[in-house]
Amino acid sequence: MDFEAKETNHSPKKFPRIPNCTYENCGGVSFVLIRFAKTEDIYLLERTHLLKFWERMLIGGRKSIKKEEIQQLGHYISLGMSPRIVYIRVIDSLYNLK
Asked: Which CATH architecture has domain 2-95?
């Protein structure tokens, strides 16, 4: 499992500095958690979707991801008490781990 957690105060989300393994073919489960600080919205964006945005940037397209794109393709993560960010439930659901 390979993941990064990023936070932004702005929308759109500029491409974060993420290790190349997240963009390259690492195999396994790979994703980015993105938190929008102003609204406290948290999304899990799978590597496959992140790669589409990365490739768009490499060919001269937009260098950021709109919040609306993340909302459409990402998976909303609700906040809890303990643990605070309950992303494991989303991982279990996406990859049939339970």
From this structure: 3-Layer(aba) Sandwich (3.40)
